[in-house]
Design brief:
This protein folds into 2 domains: 13-24 and 92-223, HAD superfamily/HAD-like (Rossmann fold); 26-91, Putative phosphatase, domain 2 (DNA polymerase, domain 1, Orthogonal Bundle), CATH 1.10.150. With 236 residues, the chain is an alpha/beta fold. The radius of gyration is 17 Å and the shape is globular. It has helices at 26-37, 46-49, 57-68, 74-88, 98-107, 120-126, 131-134, 156-165, 179-187; strands at residues 13-16, 112-115, 139-141, 172-176, 191-194, 210-211. It is built from 9 helices and 6 strands; from the N terminus they run βαααααβααβαβαββ. α1 packs across α4 and α3 (57-68) packs across α4.
């Protein structure tokens, strides 16, 4: 698949969100949350989830409790969800085309990174079956990094990733699936490719430079990396 429209500016690095971009964890979030809210006769659907994805866990939990009028605290919800995640998140599958794109970029020597709102421990659970290709990322920044003052949609995490990569933000492209993530990368000055869940819809990520249905078939050349490998991959 070649992009119908190329990025407006050349880029030197690619920064990936994780949930819904690299790993198919959003359905697992839905499953865990519905298990909790269902006890109170509530339904967790995209009218609620669309305002939560991509945000720090505490922010999302506060929104969920308020929006559904749950008789529990955000902290209670997060504690119960954490227990469910112990067995659920290690089953996460790769999103279509994600591994192939990551491996192709790394082999070509393109600096790649992960910028995820997931806390470090949860990140580790999610990549249980994917450690080989996740080892290719030069930089991984988690949402509980103490250097991040404000989570997505603030620019902090993407600015930090760019600094760690040693690449100017305006020379990076971020790949996101959520409105908060798109806003975060845009605020950092990055170009953004959105790959939203079909249930979310394209309108919620309209601020992205490009919107794709999937990463499947996306190649380094589509992102402007037409030359031969310059720095070599990690070999992971």
């Amino acid at each position: 698949m070649m992009l119908a429209v190329r990025l407006a500016r050349p880029v030197d690095a690619v920064v990936f969100d994780m949930d819904g971009v690299l790993l198919d964890t959003e359905r697992l979030y839905t499953q865990a949350t519905q298990q909790i809210v269902g006890r109170f006769g509530k339904v967790f659907d995209w009218s609620i989830k669309g305002n939560m994805i991509g945000r720090p866990a505490r922010d999302s939990a506060r929104y969920l409790v308020e929006a559904l009028g749950l008789p529990i605290s955000p902290e209670d919800y997060l504690r119960e969800r954490e227990i469910i995640f112990e067995t659920l998140m290690p089953t996460a599958e790769a999103m279509p085309g994600a591994r192939e794109l990551v491996e192709a970029l790394d082999t070509r020597g393109v600096p790649i990174a992960v910028a995820t709102s997931s806390a470090s421990r949860l990140y580790d659970l999610k990549i249980t079956r994917h450690r080989d290709w996740f080892a290719r990322f030069r930089v991984v920044v988690n949402g509980d990094d103490p250097r991040i003052a404000h989570g997505k949609p603030a620019a902090d995490i993407y600015l930090l990733v760019a600094r760690e990569l040693g690449v100017a933000p305006d020379r990076c492209v971020a790949i996101e699936d959520a409105p908060a993530g798109v806003a975060s990368a845009r605020a950092a000055g990055m170009q953004v490719i959105a790959v939203p869940d079909p249930a979310l819809g394209c309108d919620r990520v309209a601020d992205a430079d490009l919107v794709l249905d999937s990463l499947a078939g996306l190649r380094p050349a589509d992102l402007g990396f037409d030359g031969v490998a310059s720095g070599g991959g990690s070999g992971a």
